[in-house]
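Provenance and format

Records in this collection were gathered into a single text stream. Each protein contributes a sequence line and a token line. The two records reproduced below are adjacent in the stream.
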Amino acid sequence: MTERFLLHQPCDEQWWPIARQLGLRLQRARIAKGLSQEALAHAAGISTYTYQKFEKGESRPGTPMNPRLRIVIALATVLDIQVEELVGGMSE
């Protein structure tokens, strides 16, 4: 018999602090690199609006962000930092 393993999906209330922390890390890294939100978003292949929402920690009003891995990697690459600098040490 095959066991099923379900990933724990935190509720939005639990996810907000993580999303906000990622947004703050993105903002700090962007400022340190001397990039505008528009320049970073364009270089990473996402819209400025989407990136602005990421810095706020949300994807849609009232919904914490949960960006795809490829977007996190693209942002880290443009910022010339390791992905771990954006997401390391976070937990629910």
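Adjacent record:
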Amino acid sequence: FHNENKLLKADHLERGKQFFHKHGSKSIFLARFVGPLRAIVPFVAGISGMKKNKFLFWNIISAFLWSTSHLLLGYFFGNAFTVIEVWSTRVGYAIGVAVLFLVLIYIIRFITVKHGRQIAEFIRSVSTSIGNAISSNPDVQKLVKRHSTFFAFIKTRTNRKSFFGLPFTLIVIGFGYVLSLFFGIIQDVLTSDVIVSADLRIANLLEYLRSPEFTKVFLWITLLGKWQIVIGSAIIVSLILWLWKKRDNIMYLWLALVANGIFSYLGKLLIHRDRPLTPVYLENSFSFPSGHAMVAVIFYGFLAYILIRHIKSWKTKVNIFFACLFVILAIGFSRLYLGVHFLSDVWGGYLLGFLILTTVMALYEWRQWSKGSVEHEHVVVTKNIKLATAGLVFVGVIFYIGFASQYKPPIAVSAQAVIQNIEGGISTYFSDHKIPKYSETLIGNPQEPLGFIFLAKDDTVLTQSFEKAGWSSADRVSIKSIAKIAEAAVLRRQYLNAPMTPSFWNAVVNDFGFEKPTQSNSVDERHHIRIWKTNLRQDGLTVYVATASLDTAIKWLVTHRINPDIDTEKLFVKDSLQSANTLEGTNEIQFVDHILGQNFSGDDFFTNGKLYILKLN
């Protein structure tokens, strides 16, 4: 063991000795699961004179458990891939993106905690060196003399010793950038069909994914932005700040909350945007901007600012920042999940909240700077202050739990669709009434054309017809269906009703999904049909529209590649229903022109543009 040795350093031996002396005989067992110490601790045990029988006892037990755990780990990851295959849908893609986002946030937090200061110091050092090199250049010096007034202004703007130097410059730049984003999102909401289309489809997708279990969770989360909780929490925070003699913060906290109320009200009044049509519960105000998103940034952001400003530990500062970020994002997403806001409402709320928070923080910093001291009041932290603080925090938690437990918002009732009767040809009716003939992407671009129109008495007849033909109805996404996916993967069972990729038509998600395995009986290949229930009626029968596709392979681990020949798949669906004697009548019409296109994931498809009108028994 030498420090020059790349594998066996003296430090490793020292760590092994410390580990052995700390844990004794059981260190043989524990070290088996600690990579760097796995080989060193037995060596230390030998030179320390550990008894042979005791060593063999711990070594055999640890070897058995170590090998078993690794076999189970391999089995788990092998079946994890099966899980991905079973449920590789656009929902899976969304979940994957969310998980990757959380992992990315964790990595950024980890790097910031470990190396944030060194990275910042390195950047500052490099910037200073570059600046010195540029300023010492003779040509640059001549330029500075020629335009002395301009460069004097730049020097003043970058002066770190004055609040109105570099700090104020950075605040103004950041404020201006966020302000431009805010006005940009207002313009998009008022004029952009793409933003409005995406908002509508995201709202409908989240409504499709909604489940009672997750709805309860997000109702509790959204209450963190409810005005009763915020005001109650602000009172408690004010009392704590008073105890800790941080009384300057109290005025600015309430200033930020008052500004939040004023600008939230004015924004809703000016934009006058209606809320989504499928909320969990009713809200009586307009939609843009999201008041919950605003107050999340302002209130929780200001709390994080106070804590970060007065806490010395770098790691704690970083953890507070990311905890605040998580709370803000969770509140914003809860508004989307509960269907009370569009995505652009939440984004606009974040931006406006950030503008208010930045302004209040700048005013506070300017006041502190003008006093010439950052800390004016020093408090001796006594046991009574700590107990009082803990008591106030406990009261806040009890208040939140009590309010959330008793909170009963007015539940929204879905509006009944107005029934329209089709007279004449279906294709002509669709064209005359501008009813979409294509499925759509998230932003409303056309995908595959509709391949079917089903005429059925009701939903039961539709479902029974497909089940009789050997199709399985796809379950909705829920905790129960996710548990079934995991169970099917671990126990190597089939899950014929696994949730499938939702798709859009007329801005809404499909109401029904049916799937059928191919002859290969593999999760890679499956027949899919997605069906939307319309408000149209013909001859007293409900009109359903549908698209069909054949999955042929796993793509990107989270979705499937489709067979480009969707006409053959349409024929397969029709023949399967016909073979099961579920059809009363069939008709094929030219619905759209011949088309060669791509779906949302870039898969090519082609079709002759014909559509089957199938009347179910």
